[in-house]
Structure formats: structure tokens, C-alpha cells
Amino acid sequence: MGDGKKKPNAADLEKLSLYQRYLAERDEVLRHKWLESERAGRDIGFERALMDWVLNTAPSGERAARQPGSDSA
Question: What would the DSSP string read from start to end of the chain?
Fold first, then answer.
């Protein structure tokens, strides 16, 4: 009959898309952490790199989506 595999539905695909976006952003933050740590001559840590990336490097749409009271939800 069937091979036991179900076709992914729209919700599954959206979850996958969001996860892929998360992984891509995480990679960008880690790259930013490495570059800023090299510049500082020490490890600046993930949290500092993340905050700096969000505030200064992320595309403006990313920053707007993270603003409190933003209507982009």
C-alpha cells in the first residue's frame, strides 16, 4: 500500500521554513561574533554579539520586527 511516509502539510513546511531561517540567522550571529571578537582581541560572547547584530547589522526589517509594539507580527 503506502510506504509509511506522509506528505508534509503547509504547517510542516512553514515550521521547516522558520527553522531554516533561525539556522541562517544563528550562523550570521556566530560569524558576527567571530568578527567582533577578532576586532576586540577577545571573545565577546554570544549574547553581546547577538545584541550588537540585532541593533546594528540585521536587516532593517529584522530590527523592526523585534521592536516592542511593532505591528509586523
Answer: ---SPPPP-HHHHHHHHHHHHHHHHHHHHHHHHHHHHHHHTS---HHHHHHHIIIIIS-HHHHHHHSTT-S--
State the sign of the Cα–Cα–Cα–Cα dihedral 11, 13, 55, 58: negative
**Reported pTM:** 0.64
| Terminal CA-CA length for the chain | 43
The predicted model gives 22-43 an average pLDDT of: 96
